[in-house]
Each structure stands twice: as structure tokens, then as C-alpha cells.
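Render Spore protease YyaC in 3D.
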Amino acid sequence: MDTHLDTPVYYIEGRTDRAGNKIGSLLTELYAKSDSNFEELVFLCIGSDRITGDSLGPLIGHRLAKEHLNRCCIYGTLANPVHALNLQETVESVKKEHPNSLTVAIDASLGSKKHQGFVTVGQGSLEPGLGVKKKLPPVGDISITGIVNLSGAFEHFLLQTTRLSTVMELADAIVSGILVAHRQYFGTRRPSLLAFFHPEEERRRSLTKLTPLSAESAAARPKGS
């Protein structure tokens, strides 16, 4: 799957009270716009639990796994993270074990100062490691990222010094949104709300401003672990 540069990517401020509802409404709409014949949702939560800035995906996977959501499968938790070293193997397993699924890829990212602490939601895959020239498979039919810190120089240092409170706020918003979408999509459908959201142009101009971090964090993993 390729990253779709012409597909709108929606930005939601993670710390607002209604962030979960906004994320949930967007996800519900994107589920409906996808193949209506999918049998289950697969949440592919990418990242490492060893570095604060890259722990967003595993933290979300850990929390979703405790919900035991109907028709949902979770890959990537704190106990069993999905990162650069096992991503290809995991993607192949998902294709084999869940051939009629819709995959939602979740990862941490870096972005501009004005978007730090924001959640992005979009239709199409994300490419882990894109900004660090790592060749990893694009993943997901729908992508969610949490912008944990600023893009630029010294990204290893930024990952290691990212505030846990920022990661937790983003995780809270994303998990809440996923739960809202699960109730809406598998329960009573609601009218489309996409018209009330305005996609940012920044992502479409340059993916370097929103870079998934899994490959970066793998390189920074302590030796001998």
C-alpha cells in the first residue's frame, strides 16, 4: 500500500475535551468509506516501549487489548511491541491471519511546533521510518499518528526526552476515539461529519513534517536488549 499524498489528513488537538468524539466521528466515517465487506478491524500499534517518545503505539495497543472489543484484533502492545525489527513479519502475519480485515495503523510522529500534541487521522497507509530513509513497508488502510515532539535535528534526543504527559494525553484521546468509533460503527450509524473538519495542507506538501518514528527508535535501542 502506498501513502496517499492527495488524501486529506485531519488534525485534532489531543488535549481538548472533545478530542475523543472528533477522532471517533472521523474514524467512523473512514470505516464507512472503506470496503464495506471487511469482517474485522486490525489495529497495528507501532513503536517501542523502551523510549518515551515512541511508546505511544504500544501504550494504545496495551489499553485496547484490555477492552476485548468485538471484531477487533490488536497487534503491538507494551509486552509485545511491533517495531522496525519485526514489522515486516507482523504485516505478513496480519495478511495471512486476517485476509478480510481493515487495518488501522497507529504510530508516534514528529511535526511542526503548532501541531505538537495533535492527533492526525487519514485514509491510506503510513510509512514508518520515512524521515530517516529506512525502507520499511507502508502499513494500514487508515492511519492515526500522535505528534509527540518537534521534527528537526537531534531526533534521538527528542524521543528520549519527550514528556510522558504528552504521550499519555495523545493515548487517552486516540483510545477514546477508537472506542467511540467502535460504538458508532457497529451500533447505530450517524450522519457524516467530515464536512465539519478541515484537512491541513501541510501534510500534503511535505511528509518530512510528520514522520513515523518506529525505525528511529529501533536504532536508538540500548545494545544487548
